[in-house]
Amino acid sequence: MDKFVIKGPCKVKGQVNISGSKNASLPILAATLLFEKTVEIKNLPRVRDIDTMLDLIQSLGFLVKRNYKNNSVKITRLKKINTLTSYSRVKTMRAGILLLGPLISKFKKAVCSLPGGCLIGPVRPINLHLQALSKLGMKYNIKKGYIHANAKKNLTGATIKFPRISVGATENTIIAACFAKGKTVLKNCAIEPEIKDLTNFLRK
């Protein structure tokens, strides 16, 4: 078995640049769908899920310009928007479900592949996303591995108590509630650092 042998004591000093958090970046990228003006996100980590999320956003009709020198991206909404997230793009990443909230909130419709290659219907924790968004007024059905969702009217704020804590469902509901009419209160929701990062971003 390979191992590292470290002999001390020794003085440790210097500076290390820490990459941005993937778990914080993904919901923030999803939330950029809400904005009509260009949004710039900095210090993105260079990981596959970030590439996949940006590819998804671009496929929806957004202009995505990446700057690899400073690990930033600029996202601009174009005139024609596609509200389908395809299985071929979502199958490798469960965070693709985070696009459901902003699509429903901003564009009133969405067809989203079940994430992670799941083709048998809503399973944990996707059902928590669907239950919470339904309480805001989203209607949906599932056909052949896709969530067909719509909101004929604006979403309406509600008091939502999650049956168990879910970071992703909390993020999706927060994003969707931004354009809901009235106040939304979330109970038994996640309070991880990435939730705070998302809410700070949305306040800007």
Automatic annotation (TrEMBL):
It is an enzyme of class 2 (transferase). Keywords: Cell cycle, Cell division, Cell shape, Cell wall biogenesis/degradation, Cytoplasm, Peptidoglycan synthesis, Transferase. Pfam families: EPSP_synthase. Residues 7-204 form the Enolpyruvate transferase domain. It is found in: Cytoplasm. It catalyses: phosphoenolpyruvate + UDP-N-acetyl-alpha-D-glucosamine = UDP-N-acetyl-3-O-(1-carboxyvinyl)-alpha-D-glucosamine + phosphate. Its EC number is 2.5.1.7. InterPro entries: Enolpyruvate_Tfrase_dom, Enolpyruvate_Tfrase_sf, MurA_subfamily, RNA3'P_cycl/enolpyr_Trfase_a/b. GO terms for biological process: cell division; cell wall organization; peptidoglycan biosynthetic process; regulation of cell shape. This is UDP-N-acetylglucosamine 1-carboxyvinyltransferase. The lineage of its organism: unclassified sequences, metagenomes, ecological metagenomes.
